[in-house]
Amino acid sequence: DAKTTxxxxxxxxxxxxxxxxxxxxxxSGNEYVYWYRQIHSQGPQYIIHGLKxxxxxxxxxxxxxxxxxxxxxxxxxxxxxxTAVYYCIVRALYNFNKFYFGSGxxxxxxx
Amino acid sequence: xxxxxxxxxxxxxxxxxxxxxxxDPISGHTALYWYRQSLGQGLEFLIYFQGNSAPDKSGxxxxxxxxxxxxGSVSTLTIQRTQQEDSAVYLCASSLGGAGVGSYxxxxxxxxxxxxxxx
Lengths: 111, 119
Known about the structure:
The complex is a heterodimer. Chain A has strands at about 10-15, 20-25, 30-40, 45-50, 55, 60-65, 70-75, 85-90, 105-110. By secondary structure, chain A is mainly β. In chain A, the strands form 2 sheets. Chain A has a 5-stranded mixed sheet with strand order 1-9-8-3-4, with no helix packed on it. Chain A is globular and about 40 Å long. The N and C termini of chain A lie far apart (about 40 Å). Chain B is mostly beta strands. Chain B is built from no helices and 10 strands. In chain B, the strands form 2 sheets. In chain B, strands 2, 4, 5, 8, 9 and 10 form a 6-stranded mixed sheet that branches. A 4-stranded antiparallel sheet of chain B has the order 1-3-7-6, with no helix packed on it. Chain B is globular.
């Protein structure tokens, strides 16, 4: 299964866009990229996922490079409530019950 | 609608005792997962149920851990003869699962977990 690499922490000013990178250079053609976040003392919250096209929903946008070796999660207008650990996960189509969470990126949104 | 519900939210037990943790998945979700998260760590896969298929138990750390899912809905994770290293947050998740179109990539929805402390 493809593994992911994320920076351990990032800072972002409130109201600005937060761009969280993820490297997944060993990703296979049938593996989806998922993003979750975890706020202290809560379970992980689903944000967005995609295969090769860019995706957008009410929470965020997901930009996947053409070679699919990396992706960026964009929170367009970060708020203090977006402070959390963000996990980038690669999920195999045929081993989809194994959701491997790495160490994630701690996003600190500052006033 | 209602999300994944786990109980109890906190459990303190003495070393050597057995504990049962409960998970109520989202209605209609056929796939159910258990994970555990030790302090400051990422999530560790434990077990996966899909419909009436045999569960994937490959993540269970020892034979002291077991889980069942009755009627394809509620699941119970049992830890026998608890040890201090079992202290963690135990998370349950559910998803549409199955073999239907689009279901294999349906996202997991997590509960808020049970914090287990073994003294």
